[in-house]
Amino acid sequence: MVGTNLKAETTALMEKRSLLEEQMSAIISRLCVPGGPGLSGNLLDSEGFPRADIDIAAVRLERNNLAVLRNDHKDITAKIDQNLQLLHSTRLAQDISLPPKVSGTSQENFYTAMDEDPVVGVPFAIVDEIADGSPASDDGLQLGDQIVKFSNVEGGEQLLARLASEAQSNQGCALPLVIVRQGMFINLAVTPRPWHGRGLLGCHFRIL
Question: What's the whole-model pTM score?
Answer without folding.
Answer: 0.48
